Structures are given as C-alpha cells and as structure tokens.
C-alpha cells in the first residue's frame, strides 16, 4: 500500500513537472568543464575618460588617489575580483608606440588620438602605470600589441622589456626606469580588429603577418605567452576559417571575436535610457545572438582544432548606445540601465554555457566608456547596473559548469520573440551550487520549477536580486541606488525541488550549499 501511494505521488509530481511551462533540471554530479575566470575580464582603452579621469588622475589631483590612480574606482574594481584587464586598445592599440609611454613624464612625446576625439595623448599613462595598476587591482594584464602601424621589432622589444629578467637592452632599460623585476605578462593580443581600424587587412594577409609577429614574441623564463590572434568581426566566419586554416596551432593560443549589441543602426544606435519596450526586446534579442555567433565560430574552430586547444576570446562585447547628449561623440560616454544589466546577465550566461571553447572575454569598457562598470563625474562615482551583475556572477569564476535543461516560456512583442528566462549553473570547489537567472519579461513574475538531480543535494539557499521600478531605471550621481542589489527570499527548496518565483525584469543569483 505504502509503495503504491509513493508511486502515485511520484507520478503526480512528475506529470506536474512535465506540464509546467517553465522548468529547469540541473545535473549536480555531471559537470566536467571549468568556467575560466577570465570570462569575467574587462577592457580599458585610451578612449574618452576611461584611462584619464577614470583610472588615472595623476598624483597631484584633488581627487583622492593612490599614486595617481583614482581610489574609488580602484576599490570598486577590487570588490568584483576582475580576473584580467585588456589595454591599451582597441583601435588605439594599433597606433600606440609603447616606447613613448616610458621614462620621465616630461620627456614623453605627445601624440594625437585620431580614433577617439582627436585629443592629444600625453602618454603619462604607459606600461609601468598600467602594470602597476594591475598589481593594485589584483588582476592579470592582457596587453594588445601594435600590428597595424607598428613593427615586429617594436612588439618583440615590448615583450622583452616587460618579461625578461636577465641582462638585455630592454630589461636594462626597464631597470633604468625603476622596475627591477620582470612583470611576466602572459596574455598578449597580436593586433586588434585588423580587418578594420587595425589595418584594413584581408584574413590571408593578417594570418601571414600574425605568424611573423607571433614567432618573435618570445617566452622568457618560466612565463609562457598566451598569444591571441585578432579575430572576426561579428559573423565574419570566413575570417575565422582562414586564420584557423593558415596559422599553425602551436603558434596561437586564442582567436578573438568582437560583437557589440547595437539596438538600432550604427548611424543612430538609440538612446541608453530613453527607449521603449520594442527597443528593449530588440536589444535583448540582439544580445542573445552571441550564442549563435559562438556556436558558428566554434564549429569552424572544431574542424581544425578538435581538441579545443585554441580559445575563443570574446575580447570586446557589450552594448553600444548613442553618447549622452552634450558629451563628446568621440568619447563614447553612455548611461547604463537595467536593460544593460540584462544584456550582461544573458551574455555571461551564454559564455558560461560555452565554457569549453570560450576562455576569455572582456566587456567594453571599464570606466566611463560604452557599457561601463562605473561612471565618474569629477570626484563622484556611481556603480552601474552592469557592475552589480558582475558582482553577483563572480561566484561562477573557476567553478565547474553544470549541465542543465531549461524550458522557458517566450516573451513576445510585435515581431520580436525571445526566451523569457536565461540561465547558467555551476558548482564551486566547496560544493556550492550557483544558479544565475535573468527574467527578461518586463511585466510577469515567472514561477520556475527547478529539479536538482544528484547524489547529495545541498539544502541551504541564499539569493540576491537586481531589479528596479522600470526597465529604463538607471543610477545617477544624485540617485546612485536606484538600481541596487537586494537579498531575495521568494523560493522554496524541498527534497531537491526548488520553486523560484522570479520577479519580472530581474537578475537573480542563487547559491545552494550544505551548511
Ligand atoms: O571599444 C571601442 C572600439 O570598438 C575599440 O577600440 C575597437 O576595437 C572597436 O571597434
């Protein structure tokens, strides 16, 4: 009788689960791929107020600083454990000559930053300033070399200057400039967007050039370089095909991909804050296109590299809106709303779910530029909704990706249709299960039935939520907490079944542990 009743109970429960519109099954014991922490990387270019005013204010500034670095920005970046920081560009990298940025400030030559507003770059922030900043932040540097207008010798010398500890012309120069020990920088990009601002090259020409540059970027001591080829723009699959075919695998550790979420057109991208619901769903649908891009580029890579030795490095991604009214169009300063937070949440879920191939990614950009983590105004700073997503999602860094099955209802408007829910799941080394969810539906709480499958189901849940009054909500210097993280309690876990009431327009991260 008892067995019979249990059976009826199980069948009833199973069919309830099967009929449910929104359900998630997570296999707790089946993970095999680590989510590389470098997926949570950032990008700081000599562009607008990212470096100057954002990261670096100089030692004599009235703005509180540590050796010239803004203190508030430094603290904000440390708090979210950023794993790597890409520098000096972007397009700027292919016109940057690193020797202009070393030695006494007074003697450093000036240049015109032709890409970004035609402003004069005084080179006061150079190699030493960047690498010392990375040490302070506790992040790994990712340097992009100049292929577009530089020489092979110039890049090889830069690697020697930074990484060689013995007696050599470049290491002696570094020591003369005050740095005794090599920095041992591992991550090196060989040019940037060489199909465009980095030289307008064909993939065949770039692949040949890459081989020459990569050959002369040497490993020094124990430090093995991780060399990243300048990869495709969005859906230019031919670029990936040619590079994978022509460049021997032992010469390349990564190949990059750049994709920006632009709501309307490149000529009029749309406002960061003044948008309607159609713009909103379009933005999120376009952010979701990252999944298709990764799948298609990865399929090409699999053909030449079935063992997945070469990483797909999405070293520029994020929203690109119109600049804020009244600001320099060349400075790419934009606000950041709850919508941007969802782009971040959805994209990071996609990266996690492709952790087998995507090993590094960099949001564009860290401070005051594009989808920034923080915005500054003179001595004030605000954290953007995107910052909060990175803070909530940091639990995934170096965790094991957990396979899952998701059934999500659709969120539809006019011609647009997307999954209302986006998810990724991981297990930390201490056994904690991390689930990051986005409910993109602007008006509907979604009940998500989650089944945890495994030997030992942990039972203690804690959770955080990011939401706000509207999808257009954003933080201002006057009201910096309009979009903020709060604790979340609307869930119930019983015998491996986790019922979550996901509020409309929210990002939720749950952590389930044994104690
Ligand atoms: O992130 C801004 C610019 O976008 C970068 O400099 C360039 O690589 C891309 O086109």
Question: Can you walk through the features of this model?
Answer:
This protein is of the alpha/beta class and 515 residues long. The protein has ten helices and 28 strands. It has helices at residues 2-19, 71-79, 127-137, 152-163, 169-176, 203-216, 237-246, 277-304, 338-353, 385-393; strands at 23-27, 33-34, 41-43, 65-66, 69-70, 84-87, 111-113, 119-121, 140-145, 187-190, 226-233, 254-261, 311-319, 358-364, 374-377, 380-383, 400-401, 404-407, 410-413, 416-419, 421-427, 433-439, 446-453, 460-467, 484-487, 491-494, 497-502, 506-513. The strands form seven sheets. Strands 3-6-9-10-11-12-13-14 form an eight-stranded parallel barrel, surrounded by five helices. Strands 2-17-21-22-28-24-25 form a seven-stranded antiparallel β-sheet, covered by helices on one side. β21 (421-427) and β22 form a beta hairpin. α6 (203-216) crosses α7 (237-246) and α8 runs parallel beside α9. The longest helix is centred in the middle third of the chain and has 28 residues, at 277-304. The chain is globular, with a radius of gyration of 24 Å. The model has no long low-confidence stretch (mean pLDDT 96). The structure holds alpha-L-arabinofuranose (AHR). Residues 45, 89-91, 192-193, 316, 364-365, 370 line the site of alpha-L-arabinofuranose.
């Amino acid at each position: 009788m008892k067995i019979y009743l249990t059976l009826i109970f199980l069948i009833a429960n199973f069919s309830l689960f099967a009929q449910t519109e929104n359900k998630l099954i997570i296999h707790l014991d089946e993970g095999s791929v680590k989510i590389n922490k470098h997926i949570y990387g950032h990008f700081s270019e000599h562009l607008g107020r990212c470096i100057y005013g954002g990261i670096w204010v100089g030692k004599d500034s009235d703005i509180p600083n540590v050796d010239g670095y803004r203190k508030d920005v430094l603290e904000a970046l440390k708090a979210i454990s950023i794993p790597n920081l890409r520098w000096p560009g972007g397009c700027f990298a292919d016109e940057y000559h690193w020797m202009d940025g070393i030695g006494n400030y007074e003697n450093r030559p000036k240049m015109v930053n032709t890409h970004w507003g035609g402003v004069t770059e005084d080179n006061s922030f150079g190699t030493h300033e960047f690498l010392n900043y990375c040490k302070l932040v506790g992040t790994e540097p990712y340097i992009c070399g100049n292929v577009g207008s530089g020489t092979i010798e110039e890049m090889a010398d830069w690697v020697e200057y930074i990484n060689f500890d013995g007696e050599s012309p470049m290491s002696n120069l570094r020591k003369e400039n005050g740095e005794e020990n090599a920095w041992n920088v591992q991550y090196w990009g060989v040019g940037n967007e060489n199909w465009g601002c980095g030289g307008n090259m064909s993939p065949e020409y770039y692949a040949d050039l890459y081989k020459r540059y990569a050959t002369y970027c040497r490993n020094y001591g124990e430090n093995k370089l991780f060399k990243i080829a300048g990869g495709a723009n969005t859906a230019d699959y031919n670029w990936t095909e040619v590079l994978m075919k022509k460049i021997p695998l032992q010469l390349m550790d990564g190949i990059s991909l750049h994709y920006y979420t632009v709501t309307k057109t490149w000529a009029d991208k749309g406002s960061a804050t003044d948008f309607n619901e159609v713009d909103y769903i379009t933005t999120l649908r376009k952010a979701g296109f990252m999944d298709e891009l990764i799948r298609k580029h990865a399929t090409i890579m699999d053909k030449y590299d079935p063992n997945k030795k070469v990483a797909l490095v999405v070293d520029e991604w994020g929203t690109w809106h119109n600049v804020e009214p009244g600001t320099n169009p060349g400075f790419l300063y934009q606000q950041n709303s709850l919508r941007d937070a969802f782009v971040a949440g959805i994209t990071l879920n996609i990266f996690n779910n492709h952790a087998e191939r995507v090993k590094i990614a960099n949001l564009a950009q860290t401070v005051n530029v594009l989808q920034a983590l923080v915005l500054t105004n003179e001595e004030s700073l605000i954290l953007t909704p995107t910052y909060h997503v990175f803070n909530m999602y940091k639990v995934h860094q170096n965790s094991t990706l957990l396979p899952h099955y998701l059934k999500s209802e659709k969120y539809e408007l006019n011609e647009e249709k997307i999954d209302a829910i986006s998810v990724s799941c991981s297990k930390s080394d201490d056994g904690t299960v991390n689930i990051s969810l986005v409910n993109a539906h602007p008006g509907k709480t979604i009940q998500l039935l989650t089944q945890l499958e495994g030997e030992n189901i942990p039972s203690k849940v804690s959770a955080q939520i990011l939401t706000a009054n509207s999808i257009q909500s954003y933080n201002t210097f006057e009201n910096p907490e309009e979009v903020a993280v709060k604790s979340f309690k609307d869930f119930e876990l019983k015998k491996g079944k986790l019922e979550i009431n996901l509020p409309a327009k929210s990002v939720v991260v749950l952590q389930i542990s044994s104690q």
